Amino acid sequence: LSPPRAPKTMADTKLIGFGNPLLDISAVVEQDVLDKWGAKLNDAILAEDKHKPMYAELAESHPVEYIAGGATQNSIRVAQWVMGKPGSTAFVGCVGKDQFGDKLEQAARGDGVNAAYMKHPETPTGTCAVLVKGGERSLVANLSAANCYEISHYETAEIQELVTAANIVYCAGFFLTVSPPTMIALGKHVAEKHKTFCLNLSAPFICQFFKDPLLSVMPYVDFLFGNESEAAEFGKAMGWGEELDVVALKAAAMPKESGSRPRGVVFT
Question: Taking the complete model, does pTM exceed 0.85, yes or no?
Fold first, then answer.
């Protein structure tokens, strides 16, 4: 049997995610590989010029697995599996007009997710090296086309119909590196319509280097997620210290655009 396909109609959409669609290149590696590329376990970084050769080298030196990925897209695919009915979820981000982009769309739609990608004509689809050692992993993301998402795509009739239909919006903090204006526009819609906005801190570097965009979105956040290292970094950036209970309570008490319910904070 062929896999279920997400419909083009938007009425059934309950959950929509905005983020960076990436093709994961996953391999089990040795410590010297991590050291060579300056990668740390249980961490995620954006690729610099020095990382560009890593993807081809990894494929040549190790058995690799290609997986449709990106933090938000992965979360949406799992949610779609839980919800069951094709088209209950949608995902928006930017890919290239290339084979990797086609693979990502096929994988998402095959899972029942309505993949509504912006397709960049010149920039290739983004990739992410997933370096696995001892049950932990390090992520090195080369955003490429994912970094090209523009709010003009968000403003199209197709995406507006999806956003209008959805009750819950989910974004990873990684999208703060790409299009804060889109996230703010989403937040304003959610606050106005009394919907739910969920944000994941995603990685310590988001709190370190993208604090201002993060703070611009926080007033719209109904649920904030993060792990203990991200929470500690958020606390340091805000001058609250690194005690998780203190950081959680202070994050929950930050100003909120919608006063209809308190902010929930989940640190794991």
Answer: yes
